[in-house]
Amino acid sequence: METNISLISSSHSKELKLVEALLEDFKNGHKTSLAIVGQKGIGKTALLKLICNKFGDEFSFINIKANSIANSYHFFKNIAKELDYYPLETKEWKAYSDSLFAYMEMSNKKYVLAIDDCHYLASSKSEVLSYIRNKYQELDNLFIILTLDEEHKRKLFAYDKAFFGQLKIIELRELSYEETEKVVKALVTNVNKETIDTIYYYSEGNPRFIEMLSLLALGNKSRDNLLHAFKKYFETAFNNELSPQVRSILTVMVQNENVNVAEITKLLYSDSGVISTQLKRLNAKGLIIKDEKTNRYRVRNYFRLLLDNKTYFKESHF
After folding, report:
1. What angle in degrees, to the nearest 10, is found between the helix axes of 93-106 and 126-138?
2. Which of 18, 178, 220, 302 registers the highest number of CB atoms within 10 A of its CB?
3. E strand or H helix at 268
4. Considering the entire predicted model, what is its pTM?
């Protein structure tokens, strides 16, 4: 479930002005490309779509979702599809991509290559990132927008400081109470303050969960589907990147109706060894958050909502 772009547009006027200024510089021959950074569900993809919608008439956007790319050749095949240009068929990705970018270089168009979740290219497909970096430096008519989370931002900047260090960064934050209220009222008619307070408490300003909880507040037939979406969201959020120990703990937390949350979260509060590393990943994924004052982690309120009491959704709390 992706955040509704119409709901975040009013909250990102500052970011859109920055993008507009960067693209105007790009038109005038000076380019500083962009990285959109933030936790899962914060609205990175939605902001990217908003940028494409707003500036799509002025620039030729090439939209790539890196998490759906099978291999390097597949990545450039997707670019060819977006351009509606197909070079001579070859299974050798380098030759294919060289032909593709030669076509772009000869064009009088201004291209914006938007790579969503670009951190998926950083491991097995790192050669794609290296290639894109080189072409970015060679082509005057190529601008790049990347989205990634905070954890992978640090890794990518360490991987290639020269390239990633020159990007302009937009760091998305959680919505304020007032911004949350606007979103909820846009989705739910005649909503009362208690409902808004509840949604804000459990969403913690995360746009994706504000939208999910607002739809739950409608009390319509989508309730079961949304509960399932919550469950799937958390199941996919802690994938094979996490240690078996932490993954099993969190799986129990999600799947067991009668789980003793206090006991399991005590395990998560460990600050030693491999658990500490996994906690940082969970934090980056938005499942838990570190209290800087106490230097301890707690489960996010929207995660706790699912863990503590699944029957909450079936009661009249909204």
Report:
1. 20
2. 302
3. helix 261-268
4. 0.73
